[in-house]
Amino acid sequence: MLIQKKLQQFGEYLILMGKTFQRPERMRMFLKQYIKEVYGLGVGSIGIVLLISFFIGAVICIQMKMNIASPWMPRFTTGYTTREIMLLEFSSSIMCLILSGKVGSNIASELGTMRVTQQIDALEIMGINSASFLVLPKIVGLVTFIPCLVVFSYATGMLGAYATTLVGILTADDLTYGLQHSFNQWYIWMGIIKSIFFAFIIASVSSFFGYNVKGGALNVGKASTDAVVSSSVLILFADIFLTKLLS
Fold first, then answer.
1. Three-state DSSP class for 118?
2. 3-class DSSP string for 123-179
3. pTM for the whole thing?
């Protein structure tokens, strides 16, 4: 029964995506909605991304210095490992997991509320493709802006690492040399590419659960929770395949 239910949900998801990726009826209206979603979902998340990335960069640097310190290990190792962790996993995968909780629940609850208050039904009655009108700007907005958040996370994490030099954890010269040591530019692009796929997962899956809410207001909360859980699990699975594919 569980497998049958999941297959049914997957079919409904594909049907929704088919309706979503139709050409918008009015491009001007689409652009207006797109800008609104970029500001609400993307720009509104800059603060939490910068805050978390700064402190995670500092904590990783401190942990590497305190727990991997060895006379046999070069002093630049702390900066090197901090950079690799931020570039390879945190700023793309872990940050998108965090955003799935903030952004995903926002999308699901917004569309779920519109569904239970019959606003989506009203759009359908007026002959408007509600999926394209409501969901497409969210997907496009998130896919185009989350890579920017990843770049902000990269930079802020490095600033957090440098903040540890102010309290004498390690010298700025050692940290700088470690951050520059054996630098592979592809790691930056790999994180950006992965974040595009993760952004699509967050936006589309959250929209699916919110768009298909049935019942009353209590089901909106359940849909929001299901959206966050499903998005997080799919991001983790996608991370495995994308890491193997892009490495």
1. coil
2. HHHCCCCHHHHHHHHHHHHHHHHHHHHHHHHHHHHHHHHHHHHHHCCCCHHHHHHHH
3. 0.90
